[in-house]
Amino acid sequence: MGFDMERFVAMGGLGGGHGQHLGIAYRAHGEDWAELALPYDARLIGDPTSGVIASGPIVAMMDMATSVAVWLKRGAFEPHVTLDLRVDYLRPAVPERTVIGRGECYRLTRSIAFVRGIAHDGDPDDPVAHVAGTFIGMTA
Amino acid sequence: MSAPRTGIGQAMVLPPYAEWLGCSIEWVDGLPHLIMPFGEHVMGWPGLLQGGAIAGLLEVAGIAALTHRLSNEGTTRIKPVTVTTDYLRTGRDHPTRAVGTILRLGQRTANVEVTAWQEDREKPIATARLNYRILRG
Q: How many Å lie between the alpha carbon of A31 and the closest alpha carbon of chain B?
């Protein structure tokens, strides 16, 4: 059976208010990874002099992409919370470009999920951010 | 003691993203405290704050702390390099406050710690350590 990504997206699983307001959309997924997209929006600018969007929305997207990656790897939706998340800002995202976030769950224990991911604005080999984090299940 | 609430502090203009979050500044003991109201735009699970919105608030508060400290230094640019957020408690449907403490401000880098809380400052919902590159002149 596993985790039904299409159904999850159709049910508004990525929405939940914040994601919906940011315009975060589903792009692709695999057995242990998911890819989301954050369209450029002038209201999300963090540095008015350059027009570069703030890092907060990128963190929100990466939190969601890595969350979904956990459920894909586990093969089921299990509520969890973020324990910690580290973000390395490698370079500013280019204004006007959609930012794509790819999250991966690389290790799963009964209660802890270890995740990592990158965000890029067109070229995955030239990422704008790298993330690493952990989630803890609320039921285990 | 608390100064009158100012949407945008003296010599401090919050970026569009901070306004999108609904943040305002309250000056407490001369330090900028960021206040983010609860709303659907920052909600994850029904009735709960989304982790990304919490991280966003922490980052805005970190920038505000540094902008305030650097306000008499002329042109400076502040670029986040690494941000590590620890989620301590569930964020609920209450306003969230955050304030940054500058651990060190050097010539090239700054290290800031930000704490966010809701009803009780002694019970933070999240903390973040933020390391910045500072560009002067």
A: 24
Residue in B13, B43, B59 nearest the CB of A56: B59
Which tens digit of pLDDT belongs to each residue from A74-88? 999 998 999 999 999
To probe the interface with A, which of B23, B82, B83, B92 has the most A CB atoms within 10 Å? B83
Instruction: Flag whether B26 is in a domain.
Output: yes
Question: Which residues on chain B are in Cβ contact (under 8 Å) with A56?
Answer: 17, 21, 52-53, 55-57, 59-60
Give DSSP secondary structure letters for chain B.
-BPPPBSS-TT----HHHHHHT-EEEEETTEEEEEE---GGGBSSTTSB-HHHHHHHHHHHHHHHHHHHTTTSSSEEEEEEEEEEEE-S---SS-EEEEEEEEEE-SSEEEEEEEEESS-TTSEEEEEEEEEEEEE-
| CATH code for the domain in which residue B101 is found | 3.10.129.10
Give B36-45 pLDDT, tens digit per residue: 999 999 998 8
CATH code of residue A85: 3.10.129.10
ipTM of the complex: 0.89
To probe the interface with B, which of A82, A116, A134 has the most B CB atoms within 10 Å? A82
